[in-house]
Write a structure and sequence with these properties.
This protein is of the alpha/beta class. It has a single domain, classed as Formyl transferase, N-terminal domain (Rossmann fold), CATH 3.40.50.170. Helices cover 37% and strands 23% of the residues. It is built from eight helices and nine strands. The strands form two sheets. It has a seven-stranded mixed beta sheet with strand order 3-2-1-4-5-6-7, with helices on both faces. The longest helix is centred in the C-terminal third of the chain and has 24 residues. The radius of gyration is 19 Å and the shape is globular. The mean pLDDT is 96. It binds glycinamide ribonucleotide. Glycinamide ribonucleotide binds next to helix 1, strand 5 and helix 8.
Length: 263
């Protein structure tokens, strides 16, 4: 590898995946370098980890932004290049039957926060953006401004379940409460839905009768720390190709999905 990739990271909490990624860059397991760490949460422990490594950090305080707008809706100032109808038509986070006003409030507030993130990311050019425990859904407004080449998505996420099972905010909890006998973690590219993007890698663990939610989380995280760096390195080596695959359902409807081929 002649050139290191530049990795931007977004986090919300503890940042143990971030730590694994930074350490993998330092030890040469990833041909890359973390060039910024952004967060929606000013108190995220992961920000401190980043600062300890001398990596630039910043925050877009989602909670504060949403609260401000809730209290004074006249403060709503979406970015000039934002078209709500375009974002609504692209997103697949909400079904069309949901209360439209609620959906619009959700999207506008997130886009305002995302515009702040994008602004703060500007000084740090990057090749890959990794979501490492970033607990906010990204709207098409943000995704389109990072993924400017359809064939080369460049936002990765780690999810605590074997997708497509248990998308959402509590993958290990959902796996445990369902009574699954195996659990796992997934690395995928981000698309317009919630944890629906093309899968890059997965690892699994067994769930035994004495396991608790806590032991399951520990098993899962340990695998995440291995899997995420491996997938990032595959990206750095340009071994990830995203292609379309179509098939026809029993009802005659044709479905096309983007999938990742690893070369
Ligand atoms: C990880 O388990 C990750 O899979 C999960 O949050 C945790 C973050 O831990 N991510 C999600 O649930 C995303 N929807 P960390 O901050 O210690 O890396």
């Amino acid at each position: 590898m002649d050139k290191k990739i530049r990795i931007g990271a977004l986090i919300s909490g503890g940042g143990t995946n971030l730590e694994a990624i930074i350490e993998s860059c330092k030890s040469g397991k990833i041909d890359g370098e973390v060039v910024f760490i952004g967060s929606d949460n000013p108190n995220a422990r992961g920000l401190e980890r980043g600062r300890d490594h001398g990596i630039p950090t910043f925050t877009a305080d989602y909670k504060g932004i949403i609260q401000d707008i809730r209290e004074s809706p006249e403060k709503i100032m979406p970015p000039d290049d934002f078209d709500i109808n375009e974002v609504i038509s692209k997103q697949s986070l909400f079904s069309r039957v949901l209360d439209t006003e609620k959906m619009k409030f959700f999207i506008v507030t997130r886009v305002i926060a995302e515009a702040e993130l994008l602004e703060k990311m500007k000084p740090y050019p990057f090749d890959l953006l990794v979501l490492a425990g970033f607990m906010r859904t990204l709207t098409p407004y943000f995704i389109d401004r990072v993924n400017t080449d359809y064939d080369n998505p460049r936002i990765m996420n780690v999810h605590p379940s074997l997708l497509p099972a248990f998308p959402g905010t509590d993958g290990y909890g959902d796996t445990f409460r369902y009574g699954c006998k195996i659990g796992g973690c997934t690395i995928h590219f981000v698309d317009y839905g919630e944890d629906t993007g093309p899968i890059i890698g997965q690892k699994i663990f067994e769930i035994h009768k004495h396991d608790t939610l806590d032991t399951i989380k520990k098993k899962g995280l340990k695998l995440e720390w291995k899997l995420y760096p491996e997938c990032i390195q595959a990206f750095a080596e340009r071994r990830l190709k995203t292609v379309s695959m179509s098939h026809t359902l029993k009802n005659g409807r044709k479905v096309t999905r983007r999938v990742v081929k690893i070369t």
